[in-house]
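Okay, can you check this protein?
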Amino acid sequence: MRRTAENKLKVVAVRVDPQFEQRLRLLAEVTGRKQSFFLQQMIENGIGAMEETWLPPEILEQVRSGTLPTPRERAATADLFGGELSE
């Protein structure tokens, strides 16, 4: 898929236990792939289970049907650092 402004990948920072980082680095080195490839695979293959566990049924249905409002249509929420998200 060719990346455009609309489907550009986003950067997400996450802190992980050093043991997991070491395992991820080893996986990347041995296979010749980037760590980000494996992280992307983990997210894509695991997000459905996380949504099923953590989202309320009505929100989960919106996610699955593709009718979830875009972030601009939803009320502003706090970012990870406690500040209000801005555009």
